[in-house]
Structure formats: structure tokens, C-alpha cells
């Protein structure tokens, strides 16, 4: 390589290099190759992914709240076990997604701080309250169903760590969705009071679930760019339509109705027509004025603040014992040696 | 039910169910996401143990949802409110140490609980490890965490004697004169005095390593250790049951 001696030449080289990187990136995306953490990527691509993955991770952990609301009241031990496992999975999904986001040069702490400060969002759906046990089933069927419809295409997302996290997450989500459906079916076929409870839950969760796909295509700020980058594969309206078409026959099997008088099969399109979504409500919820926005974020902040002394203790302990065979957060050396002490004491 | 040590199965099941319920209250409130995962993991293990034990006695939902406070046989320790994280960890340390020692014994014998104990002992070993790790971190962490952990260990100390009281209602639980060495029906291979000693030395070792003082208050006797095994519980327990059972009781005969 020839030594570059003039300023102009340096600029020219840098520019050429940036262009070359950009071209290589575009080519990789076009060829459906995965972008990996050490690859060059446009800053806007990085920022867009951080925004989306953070919002996704936040949704998992805020989404624990409406369901955890029923853990202590679950009506049978089997349902209680299923619900506990589900909420546990959600915490795990949050962890995967924060880790995946960290490959982009941010940190979980930073992302959580932004969530707590209201500077990053989570899915609008979790601002609705769970008022009866049937809501837990409706969330499984509709909310997880909508999430899966949204997330399955993300398994082919251009950013490798996100795509791989989604493969793992989608498997568990499908399982949750089936359990939710099955729980709702048990209610629908149960006593008249249980059936009524199920119908009421579907009535309240149907429209908010449709809003999970985001604003209509002509109002979606990030859609076009995300689709070019192959972060998104389908438009909001396409996915919403797909979801409606999946749900209609499922609702029939459940013996429950969907609360939309305009919902009907359109022979010509080969899809269902459905009624207008209340976008004013959607915008209000996004602005923080939904039924539970304040409650959800307060609980999240409170858990974080009240847990601060615990995290500080773990850090202090790790600092004191680093290099002494006990590790900060996941080592089991400490307990094992405590057992040895115990064995010696009882020998 | 022939061959099934009903009273003991019920007592062990109630311990697991009630502690599982308390841990379930942590969901979404833990200091770290990792702890949300860990605490619900432990809660699930315990719920699984409770369900197996109930199946030896009768219908799990009838037993969990349709008995009243006075019919529950769980230790008062496990029904204690979560309190701060240190209280929950102290409760876990005391209970999981007891449960590991007990299940290890049962798993090595050929009694009616050997099978389930063999499976549960792996879970319980993890629970104890988790509790010990946190006891060390909190005890030997910051001044604040040390103080909180010490308070928690001391506050719950009085509930620890009950773990080694005979389980009422089964053969081998002995007479009322207190001379019987029996522990509970189906626990014949377990010497409760020995269990108590091993528990004390294990907990003492962990607390000392955690730079904590081993509490010296009474652990049994009237108004100190409880009488949960006889269905006498602390005040918060009824409220906990009200929440747990409300929905099930509101729909008699329904299935879910």
C-alpha cells in the first residue's frame, strides 16, 4: 500500500473506504446474509436495532406484570404451574434480548434506565389490566398469538444475534399461545359463568391485540427503512391481516365471538374484512395515558429501586472475594465450600 | 388410603405449596431479572413437589383450595410474608437446608417417600445453593445488606424449631409426653434429633462465613416456634389463603 501523504488523499481514502463498507453491507443484506456484531453497519441501522430490540426486551419484562397479577389467584395448581413457568420464560426472554442488544454496544443498565425514565417504550398491550382469570387465557391466545405473528419473520432478520434470539423465543411463545388457547377453551366449555368470563376477556383484548402490529402502513415512521434493511419482512398491515385470518377460525372452535360487527370473509380478497381500529386510543396509550401505564412503570421502577441495595451487596461481595475462589454472581464455589465446612462440622 | 402416610405427605406438601405461593408473589418484583428467573424456578420446583405429595393423599385442588386455615399442616416458617429480599433469603436458607437434609435421608431409604425424594433432592440442592450464595453476598456485602440480613435471620429464627417437631397424626409421631423419638409417619428412617443437629451446624457454618451472628433466641416452645403442624398458624396466613382460594371457591365444581 502506498503511503498517503496529503490531506486530500486521506479524505479520499476514508471516503472510499466508507463507501466500500456501505456497499459490502448493502450487498450482504441483499444476499440475505447475517450481519454480526463485529461487522461494519450504518449508524442508523445500529440505532434502529437498539431501539427495536430494547423495546422488545422491555415488553417482555413489563409483560410479566399483567400475568403475574394472577399467579397468586390461579384457580388450579396445574394452571398456577403453567402461569409461573410462563412468567419465568418472559424474564428469560428479556434476558436474551438485552444480551442481544448489548452486542450493539449498549448495556442492560443503560436500557433499563431509559425504560424507567420513559425514554424507551414497550408494547402498548401491557398497559391494559387483567381483570379476571380469563384475561390470562386471552393474553395467551391473542397477545402471544399476535407476538408470534410479528416475531416469526424476525427469525430471518438481517441482524444475527436478534434473529437467533427470536428462534429460541418463538418456540416458547408458541407453547404459551397453545396453553392460553387451551385455557380459554376450558372456560368456554365450562359453566355459563366461565363462558361469560371468557367472552368478556376476548371482548376486551381483541382490539388492543390488533394494535400490537403498530400504526397503519401509511403512518409507520420506521417501516420502510426497516424493510430495506431486512429487519422487518412484512408491513404492519400485512401482519395484522394475517393475524385476523388466523384468529377467526380459532374463535369459532373456541365457541367465542370476536367483538367486531364488520368482521366478515371477503371472497374476492381471500381474506377477512374487519372494522376500523380506534387509533386515537392507540395514540393515547402510547403517550402514556392508557389504563395501566403509570402503574406498570412505577412497579418496574420500584422493583429496581428497592433492589438497589441487593445489587450493591452482590457487587461489594464480588469485589471482596474476587480471586479468592468465590465469584460475583454465578459461581457455586462459595456454597460448595460451605458444604465442606458443614461436613467437617458433622463428621 | 393403604400404605400412604397421609398426615406426613400432607404436611410436606403444604410446606412446599405455601412457600411456592410466597415465592410466586415475587414475580416481577425481584431486584434483578436473574432473580425473577431463579425465584420462580424455585417456586415451580416446590409446586411440583406439592402436587406429587398431594396426589398420594387425594385430589390436589380439593386439598389446596378447599381446606381452611386450621386444616393446613405447613410450618409457620414458610407462610411468613416475603418482607425484603433478605427476609425471603433467610426463609429460603432455613427451609431449604432442612428440606435438603430431610430429602437426602428419605431418598437413601426405602420408605414411601423415597422415590419423590430422590427426584426432589436435586432441586432442593439447587435451592439451598441459591440461598447460601445470597446469604454470603448479603451478609458479607455492604453495611446495609449485612444489617438487613442479620435482622432477617434473627426475626425468622423463632420459627426454625418447628421443623423438628413430630408431625401429628401418623404412626411413629409418638405420644404427648415428648419422649418419643418418632418424627412422622413414613419418616421412620429419619432421626429428628440428628436432623436438627445437622441443620444447626449447616446453617451455623453458612452464617459464620457470611460474617453474621447466629441468633440465640428460643426456637421452640409456646409462642416461639409455631404449631403449624397442628393447624395453628400466624395471622398473615389466613389472608394469604383468602387470596389463593378465592377464585376456585367462587366457582364450586368448575374445572379449569
Automatic annotation (TrEMBL), chain A:
Residues 317-347 are annotated as: Disordered. Coiled coil: none annotated. Pfam families: PaaA_PaaC. Residues 325-334 have a biased composition (Gly residues). It comes from the Bacteria. This is Phenylacetate-CoA oxygenase subunit PaaA. It comes from Streptomyces camponoticapitis.
Automatic annotation (TrEMBL), chain B:
SUPFAM superfamilies: Ferritin-like. Signal peptide: none annotated. InterPro entries: Aromatic_CoA_ox/epox (IPR052703), Ferritin-like (IPR012347), Ferritin-like_SF (IPR009078), PaaA_PaaC (IPR007814), PaaC (IPR011882). Pfam families: PaaA_PaaC. It comes from the Bacteria. PANTHER family: 1,2-PHENYLACETYL-COA EPOXIDASE, SUBUNIT C, PHENYLACETIC ACID DEGRADATION PROTEIN PAA. This is Phenylacetic acid degradation protein. It comes from Streptomyces camponoticapitis.
Amino acid at each position: 500500500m502506498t503511503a498517503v501523504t496529503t490531506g486530500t488523499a486521506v479524505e479520499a481514502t476514508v471516503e472510499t473506504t466508507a463507501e466500500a463498507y456501505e456497499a459490502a453491507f448493502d450487498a450482504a443484506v441483499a444476499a440475505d446474509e447475517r450481519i454480526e456484531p463485529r461487522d461494519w453497519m450504518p449508524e442508523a441501522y445500529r440505532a434502529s436495532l437498539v431501539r427495536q430490540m430494547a423495546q422488545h426486551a422491555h415488553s417482555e419484562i413489563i409483560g410479566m406484570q399483567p400475568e403475574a397479577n394472577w399467579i397468586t389467584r390461579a384457580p388450579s395448581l396445574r394452571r398456577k404451574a403453567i402461569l409461573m413457568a410462563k412468567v419465568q420464560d418472559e424474564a428469560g426472554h428479556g434476558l436474551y434480548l438485552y444480551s442481544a442488544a448489548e452486542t450493539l454496544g449498549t448495556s442492560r443498565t443503560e436500557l433499563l434506565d431509559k425504560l424507567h425514565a420513559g425514554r424507551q417504550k414497550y408494547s402498548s398491550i401491557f398497559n391494559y389490566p387483567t381483570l379476571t382469570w380469563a384475561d390470562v387465557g386471552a393474553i395467551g391466545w391473542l397477545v402471544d398469538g399476535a407476538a408470534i405473528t410479528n416475531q416469526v419473520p424476525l427469525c430471518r432478520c438481517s441482524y444475527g444475534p436478534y434473529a437467533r434470539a427470536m428462534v429460541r423465543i418463538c418456540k416458547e411463545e408458541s407453547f404459551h399461545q397453545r396453553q392460553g388457547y387451551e385455557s380459554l377453551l376450558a372456560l368456554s366449555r365450562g359453566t355459563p359463568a366461565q363462558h361469560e368470563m371468557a367472552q368478556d376477556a376476548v371482548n376486551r383484548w381483541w382490539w388492543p391485540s390488533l394494535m400490537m402490529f403498530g400504526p397503519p402502513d401509511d403512518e409507520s415512521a420506521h417501516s420502510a427503512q426497516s424493510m430495506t434493511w431486512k429487519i422487518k419482512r412484512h408491513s404492519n398491515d400485512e401482519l395484522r391481516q394475517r393475524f385476523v385470518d388466523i384468529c377467526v377460525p380459532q374463535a369459532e372452535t373456541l365457541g367465542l365471538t370476536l367483538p367486531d360487527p364488520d368482521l366478515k370473509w371477503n371472497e374476492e380478497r381471500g381474506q377477512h374484512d374487519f372494522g376500523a381500529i380506534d387509533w386515537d386510543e392507540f395514540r393515547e396509550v402510547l403517550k402514556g395515558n392508557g389504563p395501566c401505564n403509570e402503574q406498570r412503570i412505577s412497579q418496574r421502577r420500584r422493583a429496581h429501586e428497592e433492589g438497589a441495595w441487593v445489587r450493591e451487596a452482590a457487587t461489594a461481595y464480588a469485589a471482596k472475594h474476587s480471586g479468592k475462589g468465590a465469584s460475583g454472581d454465578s459461581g457455586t464455589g462459595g456454597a460448595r465450600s460451605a458444604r465442606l465446612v458443614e461436613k467437617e462440622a458433622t463428621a | 388410603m393403604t400404605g400412604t402416610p397421609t398426615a406426613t405427605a400432607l404436611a410436606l406438601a403444604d410446606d412446599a405449596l405455601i412457600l411456592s405461593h410466597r415465592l410466586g408473589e415475587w414475580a416481577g418484583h425481584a431486584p434483578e431479572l436473574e432473580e425473577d428467573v431463579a425465584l420462580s424456578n424455585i417456586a415451580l420446583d416446590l409446586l411440583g413437589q406439592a402436587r406429587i405429595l398431594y396426589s398420594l393423599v387425594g385430589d390436589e385442588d380439593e386439598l389446596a383450595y378447599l381446606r381452611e386455615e386450621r386444616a393446613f399442616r405447613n410450618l409457620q416458617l414458610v407462610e411468613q410474608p416475603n418482607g425484603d429480599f433478605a427476609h425471603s433469603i433467610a426463609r429460603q436458607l432455613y427451609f431449604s437446608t432442612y428440606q435438603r437434609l430431610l430429602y437426602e435421608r428419605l431418598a437413601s431409604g426405602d420408605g414411601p417417600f423415597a422415590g419423590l425424594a430422590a427426584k426432589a433432592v436435586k432441586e432442593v440442592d439447587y435451592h439451598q445453593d441459591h440461598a447460601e450464595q445470597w446469604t454470603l453476598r448479603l451478609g458479607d456485602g455492604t453495611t446495609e445488606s449485612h444489617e438487613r440480613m442479620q435482622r432477617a435471620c434473627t426475626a425468622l429464627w423463632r420459627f426454625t424449631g418447628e421443623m423438628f417437631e413430630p408431625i401429628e397424626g401418623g404412626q411413629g409421631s409418638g405420644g404427648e409426653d415428648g419422649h418419643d423419638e418418632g418424627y412422622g409417619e413414613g419418616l421412620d428412617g429419619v432421626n429428628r434429633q440428628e436432623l436438627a443437629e445437622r441443620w444447626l451446624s449447616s446453617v451455623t457454618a453458612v452464617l459464620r462465613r457470611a460474617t453474621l451472628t447466629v441468633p440465640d433466641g428460643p426456637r421452640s416452645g409456646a409462642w416461639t416456634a409455631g404449631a403449624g403442624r397442628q393447624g395453628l398458624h400466624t395471622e398473615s396466613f389466613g389472608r394469604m389463603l383468602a387470596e389463593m382460594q378465592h377464585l376456585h371457591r367462587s366457582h364450586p365444581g368448575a374445572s379449569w
